[in-house]
Write a structure and sequence with these properties.
49% of the residues lie in helices and 16% in strands. A six-stranded mixed β-sheet has the order 1-2-6-3-5-4, with helices on both faces. Strands 7-11-8-10-9 form a five-stranded mixed β-sheet, sandwiched between helices.
């Protein structure tokens, strides 16, 4: 995994920073928003934008890797894959025959698990052949990718989903006159979805893990870094899952996970575009209202303990050297989170930022560098990350020293008024640009509403950022950037022989 690819992936899993729309006030924007809660508990946020006959649809499900149990890691991401496999009507040639065939697959798989645990190699070999035959039989009833083909045929764009530590999110856009089609297809995913081709897709996810984590130095380092930074909280669990867990998760496991977490109270629908709110709510009630209300999953109660001990993860690899350090910070709902966002902008947004200027421009000890809060998630207390790609001919300790100097400056020197104002402006402008699209706005609304309880924090949080002072930033830096609580990770390029000599 290249450093640029890693940074992209990290930023992709972070919760989005709240902002406002152009110069609008909250009062102006509220006139375009309609809120509702369906009869079964699904929250709905609608925004009218009649500038084009298209609409963006988002279903934000409040479940991610943080909700997984030991032994079942990766199941959130795996279920995300399965949600595109269709329903009892979409994706099959014969629903009843397919159901029986999949049941047979499950029976054979259960026998395989039993034989594997018993260490019965002869029985296992025979069962593997039987398992392939059973899977082939079930696959004969599948209409591949019919769910996606319907959406594409009707003018849909951007059909996609993502899973991170905090959430699983499904989204795409359609012409506005196809809103009822979206409501039908999307609600059927959760009302009558079929986990067809489960073991085939499980193999796909396992291959993703091999390619993105196991075969990439940065991927391996980051996984170990997170596991070291969190010793109690389930943020320690990798989103892609541990390979041993992926190898043993069954279709029944995925179905049970779905039934527990994909309940209406765990869903927020955000729709932005050319819509009529009353009509849209009625349509949503007709389709999504059919999903039965379930028992609300229990919240995560584990709190990462305060440990006054620096932790270190070092990976030896002949490739590119790389350095990473993280400090424990509060969740996105904490009042100090906005100050951490501004600090990350002062440090790493643009060529004039402190880290870039020192490490890349002046000292030329790094090719790239950056900082950001909220890794691997921000729904719960997490990490503020500082990173750099060490330049050829230089060492990680040079990069570490330079980053430490800049972090120490934040504690002892006030950020200048010019820097503070520039950071606020950059943050605001960058985030406004991200909201130009219907889908960007829908994702932001759903994200903020789910994590903070009110989409209006899009506005309240940017107002809080504007009110921050240099003294606020200094206080926050001193409070959270404690070297005795940090976790350090690095990729060193010396050979294994040198590392162990």
């Amino acid at each position: 995994m290249s450093p640029a690819r890693f940074v992209y992936l990290l930023l992709a899993v972070l919760a989005v920073v709240p902002t406002t729309l152009r110069a609008q006030s909250l009062e102006d924007f509220e006139g375009k928003v309609t809120e509702a809660t369906l009869s079964n508990g699904i929250d709905v946020i609608l925004v009218e934008k009649h500038d084009a006959p298209v609409t963006a649809f988002v279903n934000w499900v409040d479940v991610g890797a943080v909700n997984e149990l030991t032994g079942k890691t990766g199941i959130s991401h795996l279920f995300e894959h399965m949600a595109f496999k269709g329903t009892h009507l979409v994706g099959t040639k014969d629903a009843e025959a397919e159901k029986a065939a999949m049941a047979n697959v499950d029976v054979v798989y259960a026998k395989i698990v039993k034989a594997r645990r018993a260490g019965d190699a002869d029985a296992l070999a025979a069962l593997e052949a039987e398992f392939k035959t059973a899977q082939d039989e079930a696959a004969s009833f599948v209409v591949p990718n019919e769910f996606g083909q319907i959406i594409e045929r009707e003018g849909g764009q951007g059909l996609n989903a993502f899973t991170n530590a905090d959430a699983t999110v499904y989204f795409f856009s359609l012409p506005s006159n196809k809103a009822e089609l979206w409501a039908y297809l999307e609600s059927e995913r959760y009302r009558s979805g079929v986990l067809r081709e489960f073991y085939k897709e499980r193999n796909v996810v396992m291959e993703e893990r091999r390619l993105r984590t196991e075969s990439q130095p940065i991927g391996r380092l980051v996984e170990q870094f997170v596991a070291t930074a969190f010793t109690a909280h389930p943020y320690a669990q990798p989103v892609v899952g541990h390979m041993s867990d992926l190898k043993t998760i069954s279709r029944e496991d995925a179905q049970a996970y779905f039934e527990k977490h994909y309940v209406p109270q765990n869903m927020t629908i955000a729709i932005v575009g050319d819509i009529e709110p009353e009509e849209t709510i009625a349509t949503l009630e007709s389709y999504f209202g059919r999903i039965p209300r379930g028992e609300e999953p229990a919240p995560i109660e584990t709190v990462e303990p305060v440990v006054k001990a620096e932790r270190m993860v070092k990976l030896t690899d002949p490739g590119q050297p790389w350095y990473l350090v993280g400090y424990p910070i509060p969740a996105v709902t904490h009042p100090d989170y906005q100050a951490l966002q501004v600090l990350s902008t002062v440090l790493s947004n643009g060529r004039s930022s402190r880290l870039y200027k020192r490490l890349v421009t002046d000292e030329k000890i790094a090719f790239s560098t950056g900082a950001f809060p909220g890794f691997p998630g921000d729904k719960y207390p997490s990490q503020m990350i500082f990173y750099a790609t060490t330049a050829a001919g230089h060492e990680n300790n040079e990069v570490a020293s330079a980053i430490d100097i800049e972090v120490a400056r934040l504690k002892t020197e006030l950020v200048s008024e010019a820097e503070l104002n520039r950071a606020k402006t950059k943050l605001r402008a960058s985030l406004i640009r991200q909201l130009d699209s219907n889908s960007g706005l829908a994702l932001r609304l759903a994200n903020v509403h789910t994590k903070t309880g009110d989409w209006r924090n899009l506005f309240h949080n940017i107002d809080a950022i504007q009110e921050l002072t240099a003294e606020d930033l200094q206080r926050v830096a001193n409070q959270y950037f404690d070297n005795q609580r940090r976790t350090v990770g690095m990729i060193a390029t010396e050979s294994k022989e040198e590392a162990t000599s």
